[in-house]
Design brief:
homodimer; four-stranded antiparallel beta sheet; elongated
Chain lengths: 359, 359
């Protein structure tokens, strides 16, 4: 019998857990796991882990973040029929409810399972609860495959694209605007750079049947000295998403090649890496992830954004995104999840973990 | 006999007078005028005026600003041989020294003269001492012609170009950078706009023998929402200098025509006037200014920047820029003036005002 996942999600939404303030929700999760799961529970800061130690030949990690972005007039959960609205309903308290009910399920599983409830996923990566756990108790994160409960509409979103942020700085020479020919306008020099960025030919490689789609976007531009001065400096921040058939160094080299015609190092132009997050391969050939794919009954698709599957992939653990809820609604005022989504995700994971049904 | 203008300039440089802090220098100027000039002296805030009332058929206004930009390691005057270095040496305490010595000259002049020493020229126009005098005692600014003592290398720089600052705002549609095709990148849309700005075909009209040279420069650019968001907005501030054969409305209309192909009002793009300062015609046909031109012995050239000659021109008073010092050194750490410049400017103005020599 499937538990009332919508009611549990509503309880979780009712406990505020904006990033850096996950303590109350971590307390709730810890208590619930200690009371209902029969698993070994560990607490590290605002992170909670629960693991079976049955000596099974393989171990699956189910991971989900406790935090939400700040409220958007949607702090109070509101339920109508089989739909629940509220901050975090989709991203990802619905997924947390699925994890808690799976932890409480009494069937004898085919694999060992580690549940990871972690803090600070929605803020700068340096705050990530996963990084803290990895620093303090890396063994607790070991496993043969990982499933991240981010909202994916209860279908596998495989791997993730990497992110490379590059700061392009163009230089010029200051002059008075009444005598601009004495200088060189760095803002005017943005024109060919931005044209090159906008015309980037995005690769769309297919890996494990998933079509990735790279992108290159200018996300920030700054330049200028004063209202009467020909500016000698302008900066553009570029956000590049690269498919998992490339590592970050290859992606960076390709981008430098693409932008080389519109930069002039003799003027002092520079291209600096501001941030890099690796891509993660889909890994759908892994037996556990392949089994999950079969139980969902729908084809996997590529994850185009970056998620913590890359955290696990970097550590040699193949991982996929799989959870209830519409990813497009994440961070929106209209964020919601419905019972059918919760039950689809629960059922697929329950079949994966429980031998009598799925193997 | 020519007075020691270099020594007086050094005294003036030694009195700090950064914009909004001209009080001490105004006190010095007021005392000097009351002690030495025999003219009627008025004080309005940090502005000092001195006028003859001889009933001559025409009146010349000699105007100069008391303030300087902030110091650039050059607050203390330093003299070597016939050159004086220091903040304001060229812009324009050399000119003030010339004005003070002309006010103290005892010859019976051919014209009535009004000396205007005013505050806050180097900051936002709304602070201008000339505007304060115009508001409180407009009659004191009346005259048939005006000479502004800004540094011009002691040759006439005629009229001035107008300034039109336009804010161009481009719009787009936000999206996640992993799915940029869902949005429209407003920063990418800067490329054709900046290309159009950079390729502006500047007019170079000749007026009264002076060649003006228009310009269009992007001076500020801002855009972006967050590192992972396709931006929906980007703004460029444009600085346009237009020749005195155009009024501001004509210049604005021409600029709107030029930029029309790269703006899309249906997306919400806008072009807003941020600031407008009118141009001033060279007016070299006016008898007083023509006489000054003859005494300088060198051709006039066009003033490409904006100066307070436009203040007088707007009020129907033809005006030119004429003063000692190199305008290119204004606001630089190396600002300086030499005795020869001071004496050239003094002599030309003295000849203009004194009938026995020049008429």
């Amino acid at each position: 019998m499937i538990p009332d996942l919508l009611a549990l999600t509503a309880d979780l939404v009712a406990i505020p857990s904006v990033s850096h303030s996950e303590g109350a929700l971590a307390d709730y999760v810890e208590s619930d796991l200690r009371a209902r799961s029969g698993l070994r529970v560990e607490r590290i800061g605002a992170n909670v882990l629960a693991r079976s130690e049955l000596g099974r030949p393989s171990r699956v990690v189910l991971a989900g973040h406790l935090d939400t972005v700040p409220a958007n007039d949607n702090a109070t959960p509101r339920r109508q029929d089989d739909t629940l609205w509220g901050l975090g309903a989709a991203d990802m308290k619905g997924g947390l409810a699925v994890m808690l009910e799976l932890a409480a399920a009494r069937e004898d599983p085919a694999v060992d399972v580690t549940f990871v409830f972690y803090a600070c996923e929605e803020v700068g990566r340096e705050h990530s609860g996963l990084l803290r756990i990895a620093a303090e108790a890396p063994d607790l994160l070991q496993g043969d495959a990982a499933i991240l409960g981010e909202p994916t509409y209860a279908r596998i979103e495989a791997g993730c694209q990497g992110v490379l942020k590059l700061a392009a700085e163009l230089r010029g020479t200051r002059a008075h605007t009444a005598r601009p020919w004495m200088g060189r306008n760095a803002i005017h020099r943005l024109a060919p750079l931005l044209e090159q960025v906008a015309s980037y030919q995005a690769r769309q490689p297919e890996i494990d049947g998933c079509r990735y789609r790279e992108s290159l976007q200018a996300v920030l531009v700054r330049g200028g000295v004063a209202g009467n001065v020909v500016p000698d400096q302008a900066t553009v921040m570029l956000n590049h998403r690269f498919a998992p058939d490339r590592d970050a160094a290859t992606a960076e080299a390709a981008l430098r090649d693409w932008l080389e015609p519109v930069l002039d190092p003799t003027l002092g132009d520079r291209l600096d890496v501001a941030e890099v997050s690796p891509a993660a391969a889909p890994s759908l050939g892994h037996p556990i992830l392949a089994a999950l794919l079969r139980t969902t009954g729908v084809p996997a698709r590529a994850k185009l954004g970056w998620t913590d599957v890359a955290f696990f992939a970097e550590r040699g653990i193949p991982a996929v995104n799989f959870g209830p809820g519409d990813p497009e609604l994440a961070h929106s005022a209209d964020e919601r999840v419905d019972r059918h989504q919760l039950e689809s995700a629960y059922s697929a994971l329950w079949q994966l973990l429980t031998p009598t049904r799925s193997k």
